[in-house]
Amino acid sequence: MSLFFASALYIAVAVLTIGVMWKVILYARTPVPHMIAVAPVPRTRLGVLNRLVRETLFFESLFRASKWTWFFGWIFHCALVIVLLRHLYFVTDPIPAWLGMVFVPSDYAAWLLVASLVGLLGRRVVVSRVRYISSPSDYAMLILLLVIGASGLHLRYGTDVNIVGVREFMLGLLALSPKDLPENLTLYLHVLSVVVLAVVFPFSKLIHFPGYYFSPSHNQRYR
Amino acid sequence: MKKIESPNIKERAMSHGKPFFESGSDQSSALVEGWKEIAIDKLGEIADSNRAFRLFLDSCVKCGACTDKCHYFLGTGDPLNMPVARQDLIRGVYRRYHTLPGKLFPRFVGAVDLTEELIEDWSTYYYQCSECRRCSVFCPFGIDTAEVTMAGRSILDAVGLKQKYIHTVINNVHKIGNNLGMVGPAIADTLESLEEEVEEDTGVNVRFPLDEPNTEVLLVVPSADLYTEPHVDGLIGCARIFHQAGVRWTMATEASEAANFGLFVGDDSHMSDIAERILATALNLGASQIVIGECGHAWRVASSYWDGLFKDTMQGYQQLPDPIHICEYTHRLITGGRVRLDRSVHDDKVITFHDSCNVARGSRMGDQPRDIYRIPRELLKAACTNFVDMAPDTICENTFCCGGGGGLLTDELIEVRVSGASPRVSALEQVIEEHSVTHMAAICAICKSQFRSVLPHYGLGTDMIVSLHQILGDAVVLN
Fold this sequence. Notes:
heterodimer; B: mainly alpha; four-stranded parallel beta sheet; 20 helices
């Protein structure tokens, strides 16, 4: 079992890295024949940077568009970042000192992550306009993220899992000498769904990050 | 403030709103041989040559932010007029033939085969988009449906479905020199009669120069300004301002059209051929400044596309100064004190301003990002006492298209146009009710023509629509 998960994770990381790099290179190489920034258009590099940063940190356009979608979407992404930071515990040695500050907030973030996903899924089902534009893959993506979040919560609160053992397994992977993964069904589900997410990432709408930064609508400026 | 209500979805409510095509109404016989392969190849070519197009198709997360932002959706309730659904008409085909997941699991990821029925939807719904880009303002990634619509139209062109109105206009420019097909002598006659008209009205000989060399300004207006109301009053207004400010200016037979319908079908070669006439004329006449008149998309093309079209290809392009919008030019004259305005002539009016989509979302003015909204308003406030804005979610970058832009200003699409105008008209009705607004000034020939046609459908008078430079020109103290 450990060997299976070790190989799956190696493959996932490879597909994710190569896939995203391939997309980024593709976007970078595809010409931008015209000036199509959406006005009001910044006039300086700093102005463009400001636009991209604000959009990244606050989802400004989405805020103007739909408060509910913004609320669930923004919370989800913030929570995701915090929870991901916490996972550095598994792949750093020694553990950086500042990581301790993330531990308590990330406990809350994990619940918010799942709650916001439920909100997003609810909106997709309830609002007829959004339901109309949804494909099976749009639901599947949310459900996959929910499985990851819920299994993560279960690992944290609902089951006894040897966290130190998981860390050793991960550090072993990084050192290219895989160790045993502690036996736990929830853990298996958690890791497996992350593997699936990583593999589909470059080929799906998830490529909006880092794709967004190539968007001429927001990254161009007038001379 | 009244909130913009989103309608309930009414599937295929506007599926009958189709434009005329050059090839007639029978689509099957119009499609060229091998249309399917041609369309799929062309789609791939566009994705390879236009990053925005590929990125926009790849990265939409179907969040729904845009779904209630399009005036055609708000007006018709047809879900295929939701920007994301409009994009999906092409996105599904792109996924099916140009991406791995779409080849492997088409149904799961919303990929679809290209069929004649789908082409039918393209030829309908890509002509129920005015490329106004309101959706892109609200998209978290700036996904711009106009880019997708342009691509859709250029593919339709390639498979034999050329929209009649747009291509008639493009052919007119290529053959005769302007959208309306006005020949040189007719232009000279028109300008002469305008000169007489103004002299009769004011006793002052305000000139309308044509083809004069070495002027400060080459004014390029949409040809509608030579022909129809209230457009022509805007041109008269410009002449009055230039006269009073002592600006040496001219218009030109060879540059008698500011508009550029090449943009609407996403065709760079049409676009550059049409725009090149203006640049060549400016170089030939030795004009020191190209000023673009009241035409929304003309200004988008001049301010945003000329560089990409000509920077590396046209000799002499670098010597020409950047084109400038008529509003920015007259704003300089007025703030510089070169023209005095008497606001009392408009005391009987309450005026509001319709931001044209192509100016408000696709261009620049002045040196600050928001000058495109500030300058026209400052002009109106300088010329009249009673100016009010419409609701904030319907102006500036949030402005609603008039409903007739992007090549839709044709009779057979009148139902689409009337529906599409409804969000703008609601905002207008609100300021009529609350502030007794009497006039709405516009800076776009298409907007003006569109409102003239559709306002009666809402029980409003066509005289409400005025050119911004008409308001300005009428307030100029002539001597």
